[in-house]
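Study this one:
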Amino acid sequence: MTFDWRKQAALCTSLLAVTTLVFAASAGEMTFRLTNQAASPVQVEFFSRDRLKSWPEEGRLFILADSAPQKFMIPCNRGEKICYGAWIEGQITRSWGAGFEGKKACDNCCQICDTKAKSPLYQVSFR
């Protein structure tokens, strides 16, 4: 039995091309734009409803310290449902959207990952 380098190289090239196409088809990014209208700093976290993933990474949170709009770019898989939760810093019982740890049901706090969609500006406010 002889080893044909050309056939092996062609096979590797084909596998690499297929892998690249599959990854490119599933990779996406979405931007959430949030502004804080609360009187206190607000902590924010984003959650996937389709897999065990949150942003930012484990043990960290985004902070909305003032009313200046902030953009949060979330790498996601196209078609993936991403939700956000916010709460007054240090007061997880006063939450908004999906809330602390993303466990609450919410209206209008989730988006489907699609790089073509423009994200609306969500007003984080507590009354």
About this structure: The first strand starts at residue 27 and ends at 36.
